């Protein structure tokens, strides 16, 4: 995949895949206190961001949210590390962040569905089975 970065704007908010706008310290601060990555070290965050397709949610120049797509850039994408800072929650920005992720060519059609209650309103459904 080429290195063309996507950006989306809504009022004063921006979602971008351009690493020049990623604020690693802010990402690390949030993730290290999260329920899914407590205590994660800054170097691990840096490497994971460097090796993934990431989306920064910005209020002006301040990073207020994040989403990371672990991908092979061909057939697979796993969305993780999604967050929006508490002060910005309940404003629709989390939904918009996910919609921006879905607008990326790698996310246009979910290949798997372990969709929980948070993903179902965004169009994800349980759709799996075993076949031979």
- Give, in spatial order, the strands making up the sheet with the most strands: 1-2-3-4-5
Number of helical stretches of at least 4 residues: 3
What do we call the CATH topology? Aminopeptidase
Uncertain ranges: none
> How much strand?
25-35%
What percent of the residues sit in helical stretches (DSSP H or I)? 10-25%
Report the radius of gyration as a whole number of Å.
15 Å
Q: What is the second-level CATH architecture?
A: 3-Layer(aba) Sandwich
Output mean pLDDT. Answer: 86
Taken in chain order, the helices and strands follow as: EEHHEEEH
Biggest sheet overview: 5 strands, antiparallel
Domain N-acetyltransferase: 15-132
GO molecular function: acyltransferase activity, transferring groups other than amino-acyl groups
InterPro entries: Acetyltransferase_Butenolide, Acyl_CoA_acyltransferase, GNAT_dom
What does this structure look like?
The protein is of the alpha+beta class and 132 residues long. It has a single domain, classed as 3-Layer(aba) Sandwich (Aminopeptidase), CATH 3.40.630.30. Helices cover 22% and strands 25% of the residues. The protein has helices at residues 24-32, 42-50, 93-103, and strands at residues 7-10, 13-16, 53-59, 62-71, 77-84. A five-stranded antiparallel beta sheet has the order 1-2-3-4-5, sandwiched between helices. A hairpin with a 2-residue loop joins strand 3 (53-59) and strand 4. The termini are far apart. The model has no long low-confidence stretch (mean pLDDT 86).
């Amino acid at each position: 995949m080429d290195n063309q970065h996507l950006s989306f704007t809504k009022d004063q908010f921006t979602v971008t895949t351009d690493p020049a706008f990623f604020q690693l310290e802010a990402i690390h601060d949030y993730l290290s206190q999260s329920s899914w990555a407590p205590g994660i070290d800054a170097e691990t965050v840096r490497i994971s961001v460097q090796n993934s397709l990431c989306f920064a949610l910005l209020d002006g120049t301040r990073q207020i949210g994040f989403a990371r797509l672990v991908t092979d850039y061909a057939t697979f994408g796993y969305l993780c590390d999604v967050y929006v800072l508490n002060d910005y929650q309940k404003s629709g920005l989390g939904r918009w962040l996910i919609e921006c992720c879905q607008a990326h060519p790698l996310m246009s059609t979910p290949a798997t569905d372990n969709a929980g209650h948070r993903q179902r309103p965004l169009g994800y459904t349980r759709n799996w089975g075993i076949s031979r």
